[in-house]
Specification:
222 residues, Jelly Rolls, 2 domains, six-stranded antiparallel beta sheet, 34% strand
Amino acid sequence: MAIHTTLTLAIIALVSSFANAYDPSPLQDFCVAANDPKATIFVNGRACKDPKLVTADDFFTSGLNTSKLPAFTGSTYSAASINEIPGLNTLGLTLIRNDFAPNSVTPPHIHPRATELVLILEGTVYFGFVTADPSDRTKNRVYAKTYSAGDVFVTPQGLIHFGANIGAGKVSTIAVFNSQDPGFNFIPDQLFGSNPPILDDVLSKAFRVDKKVIDQIRAEFS
């Protein structure tokens, strides 16, 4: 009886972990996000617009032929996310256009809630991600190569990844995420630009360098 109970609990825990791994599946055709300060019921953190008031414009955006907003040094972006398309609420998708200047670098970062699929529109980019080495879990392996226009690559959910424009001109990409809120966590900024700061002793031991080196790096993020 005890074995049966333990096995049942293990199966429930496993199923629950998979169920919570991605955006929940909607139980209606759509739930257009509405800015309603009086709302008391939310789906994925947004109130649903009255279906009778929904229009085609709730499922539309434009302008991704160019990028408009600063992302990080040397990069700009335009988005087709829930903020631009209210009808994306509960559908588990985000699309981003990025343009990268020559010699720019995409800092190591993660998307904790989404897998990323990227299409190269223009240019040449070196891109890769890091994960534990399957042959030796105490070590890490980089999966990286050079991509050019027409190439597509994928980054599994939650893994550290990075990129660099290694061509003479700009790089343009379209990235699709299987979450309406994939998260963009840049590793250097989180480690060295946090408030309050992480203790120097923690970072110096983690990176195996003198505390003066940590102070020098942190100064670049202040």
